[in-house]
Amino acid sequence: MGHPHLPTTEAAVTVIREIADEFHLDMTVTDDIGADQTSRRTSAGAFAVLDPDGSLPHEAYVELGGSPAVTVQIFPEDDAKITVDGVEFMDVPRDAVPAFLRSVYGGLASVKGRFFPPGYWLKVPLPGDETYRELVPRSMLSPWLTRSLRSQS
Q: What's this model's pTM, rounded to 2 decimal places?
């Protein structure tokens, strides 16, 4: 399923702010603007602010209060890294970030455990049969992750 297009980092931050309001969450945003400030701009020259095409890259780091603890780092390359109680989801498309957050805060995310091979996975389903799944180290089972444990098989 296609997600609504978020053409810029600022558009994604605006939608995240709406979700924070919807779920009554505190929100803190840190913006990095310019090729010399963003974390992935290794090809920019020393003291360069603009990309070679003359644009200003914009990266944002968003912290959402509440349970679970969630951070979203939105990159200028149209993707994001979302961390849910210490579990990192890398390369989430920027357009999928709102659906991802609604799934987590709406109670759809769950932890699945298996005896063999042993391990726990945090699963975040999105509309349209799209699911993100990351391994949760046993030592990182927070109270929220433990409450989200669905079944072991």
A: 0.84
